[in-house]
Amino acid sequence: MKITGKLLFPAIFYGLLFEAIFLQRAYATPPFGGNDVMAGCGWDMGACRIPNGPNSTDEVVFSTGEVIDMPIHINRQNDNPDIRDIYIYGSPVFTKRVEMGESRYTYGGDDKYASVMSCFEGGIYFDVPDAKITDEPAVQSQIDRFRDSTNPLYKFKPNGTADVPPMCSAVQLEFFVDPNHRGMVRITNHCTVKTNNPNYSDFRVVSGSGGTLFENYNIYAYHYARNPNDVNFQPHTCRITDTYVPQDFGGYEGDPAGQIFVNGSVIIGGADTVDINQIVKGKIAVIATGNIWIGDNIIVDGPRDANDMPTADNPNFLCLIAQGVIKVVDPGLSDSAASWVGDRNYPADTDKIHYYQPIGVKKYPSDQYNNRYLLDPTVVEAAITVGGGGWGAEHVAAYPGETGRKEYTSPWDTLIVRGAFAEVVRGIVGSVGSDGYSKHYYHDRRWCPECSEPILGDLNGDCVVDFEDVATMTFHWLENNLVEESCASPIKGDINNDCTVDFVDFAKLAEDWWPPTVGDFDKDGRVEMDDLETLAQYWLQNNPRIDIAPPGGDHIVNFLDYALFSANWLE
Known about the structure:
This protein has about 575 residues and is mainly beta. The protein has helices at about 10-20, 135-150, 465-475, 505-510, 530-535, 560-565; strands at about 45, 50-55, 55-60, 60-65, 65-70, 70-75, 85-90, 95, 100, 125, 155, 165-175, 185-195, 205, 215, 220-225, 235-240, 245-250, 250-260, 265-270, 280, 285-290, 290-295, 300, 315-320, 325-330, 355, 380-385, 390-395, 415-425, 430, 435-445, 480-485, 485.
């Protein structure tokens, strides 16, 4: 396989976390080349469902108008009756590959996907081994590693003291670039979050349940900080590079990068930064044992391409990791924040030692400080790992009788994410056309391995030409976009750029065909321990991708498959 051995982002952030959580699944690549660890990318889900009770879930749909421009993997649900494990309403667009743990066909042989195959422009693949995102010990191990490796100056245990029950303690982070063009972070410890009763869909996973039991949690409403005139509670502003620590895992070293570890919850956002958005300049991971609440747009600094994506050489990254949930807050709940009208520095509590900390923006100049909005679109540029539930938006009116969020553009805002995801279950983002957000998710390829050289026939960008690329070409077969002697727009599969996908393109794809080694399940060009782990995972089960012997398979993974696998060991 033709892959480079250098990541722009320090190997440890996704190398560590995804190597442990996903156990080298399809997108996780073992250490290679130099001293870097390549790792997971895309959007991995333990289930494409949202909790709706202590042990029950509802389907989450992808709907018309939504664009999902990142690879997706969804674990097998083993449901009965056997229905699709991805839920589609209308005609959303999936521009990258989609991997399903389940079969395309029901137990009775019916094609579950026949009516939706046109949505999968990047191809869809079935019977793929499950991701291990629900492996709580693996998540805990990596949380512990981050805790132990973070500079003690940037490890926090907040203790909020405002009397606003129900409440929780948190650290507020505000990212900005100072006049000297340095990436900065303002850290306000010992904040008190006034929480609100959840809507029916605001759930998190019950610890120890393996992602099968759920509980409601109180959602973010607004928060207070201690009076900054008290020297014991003044915010600490530092360069992001001040949080940098050496990156090392199992003998593999990467460039230094920043870490902030919070034994509690985190709020990202605030009204005191120079830019209307939170701007991240540098490389930093934020790790929380509780929740991470997002209350502003989060943008990485640096060069961008014509589609507003960070360019391949952009050196700025943000990684968010939470053992709780990671959610975009509802700014409408801040309307009831207790503060003196027009003066947030002197709140209405009698001791006047706490002050209201607004998030988001004022929509109109006449708005009071506590009348806040999130911009439309709301933009988050980060790699997001949710160990205790799902990514999404809080307080969405998903069921009758619920109040719902405050949108900037009624009734439905747009949520743009440029990055990558992993979540145990789905968190609700919006209720189609009526509340919350429409999803527009784009894959930041900087989180993934890069091919050492372009391959004409590699249509899905996995650095190898195989049947997956044939599937992509077949999807676009005989498409023609010739307009006035030029191509109107690129077509995947039009390798010779003549504005149509035909046998000429197929011939060029064949020139780069890569014959896979039997037993190389992760397609890294070698049969080794990661492939053996995959074989063991499906031992005595029926998985057509792993059932390699006899030719054509015998519907069980057993010693016949192991014998053929062993014959190709280290090939």
